[in-house]
Each structure stands twice: as structure tokens, then as C-alpha cells.
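STRUCTURE:
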């Protein structure tokens, strides 16, 4: 599982999960989903630069992922190597998630975990109180801040994206970044190597 967490309101607007190791393509899908959850599914770019903090895993530091982040208006930043404490907010979320959702959960197989993941994230966003938010859930705090700023709650009511959600593959940014090094019309003319 990889997730995006908003440093202001502690909401997890998007996540990706798979029974296999995550790839750069999964992280780019996470970037799409996060952008859409915050700014609507027609958003092609963040309205202003937004920092995207991650660890140094190859899926986060891949050239295609870094270029894609810039294309979306995200500013990719990595934590110092071997320093998980430098991303304390994410580490705190992981600890809370393990304690409150995985502790007594049925974890018999990946399919069961993936089937429950959306509900756990939705519960965390809508029910989990945070001392830094005045003991409000992330969504309640965000609604309060939007009401204070604009006089009415305009929080995103988008449904949480499920791991099997296909919108990223059909979305406005699905063709980016292009496959580098092989032109589509030439790819089929290359001889196949024996396996």
C-alpha cells in the first residue's frame, strides 16, 4: 500500500494497493488520484505547487515518476536515506492504521485485506479523532476550515478510490509519461528474444 496524506488536515485522499510490490506506475496512479480527490477529476495540474514528500524507494525516485510529478504541479522531495522519522506524519498514520485497523482484522489473504482497505481508509478519514485537529476527524476538520474560510463547506465529496478502480487508466493523464525509448509503431517490428 502507498498513500498520500495531507499534512494540513491529515486526510488520506488517495491510496493504491496491490498484492504485488508497487511500481512507479502505481505511484503515478496515486498522484492522479490524489490530484483528482483534491481538485476534481478534470484537474490536469495542481493550482499551485504542492510538495510531494516520499521515501527513496525506486518507485518514487524513478525518472518517469519525478517527471510526472512536475507535470502535475507537484514538487517531489525525498526524505534522507534511512531516516523514516523525517516523515513523521506518514509514520504516525502507519502506526495508527496498524493499531486501529489491522490489529483485530482478518488478514488471512491479500484479497481479504484489499477488500477491507477502502472501508478502513474511509473510517480513518471520517471517524478517527486527531489531537492536532481538536479531536476532530480529518474530514470534519477540513469541513470546519472550509466553512470558516468560505462560509460554506465545499469539501470534496468524491468517493474513495478503490484499488481496483480503473479511472486512472482512462483519466485525462493516463497516457503520460510516454514510454521512453520505443516508438509504438516500431515496437512490433523488433524480433522476439527466446525465453
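SEQUENCE:
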Amino acid at each position: 500500500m502507498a498513500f498520500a496524506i495531507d499534512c494540513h488536515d491529515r486526510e488520506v485522499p488517495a491510496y493504491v494497493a496491490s498484492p504485488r510490490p508497487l511500481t512507479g506506475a502505481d505511484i503515478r496512479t496515486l498522484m492522479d488520484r490524489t490530484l483528482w480527490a483534491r481538485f476534481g477529476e478534470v484537474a490536469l495540474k495542481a493550482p499551485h505547487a504542492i510538495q510531494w514528500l516520499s521515501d527513496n524507494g525506486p518507485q518514487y525516485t524513478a525518472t518517469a515518476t519525478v517527471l510526472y510529478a512536475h507535470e502535475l504541479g507537484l514538487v517531489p522531495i525525498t526524505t534522507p536515506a534511512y531516516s523514516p522519522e523525517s516523515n513523521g506524519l506518514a509514520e504516525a498514520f502507519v502506526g495508527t492504521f496498524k493499531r486501529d485497523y489491522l490489529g483485530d482484522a482478518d488478514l488471512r489473504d491479500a484479497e481479504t485485506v484489499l477488500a477491507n482497505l477502502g472501508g478502513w481508509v474511509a473510517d480513518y478519514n471520517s471517524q478517527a479523532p486527531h489531537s492536532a485537529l481538536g479531536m476532530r476527524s480529518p474530514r470534519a476538520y477540513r469541513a470546519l476550515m472550509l466553512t470558516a474560510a468560505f462560509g460554506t463547506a465545499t469539501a470534496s465529496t468524491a468517493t474513495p478510490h478503490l484499488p481496483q478502480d480503473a479511472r486512472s487508466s482512462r483519466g485525462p493523464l493516463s497516457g503520460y509519461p510516454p514510454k521512453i525509448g520505443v516508438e509504438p509503431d516500431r515496437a512490433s517490428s523488433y524480433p522476439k528474444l527466446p525465453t
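REMARK: The chain has one domain: 2-187.
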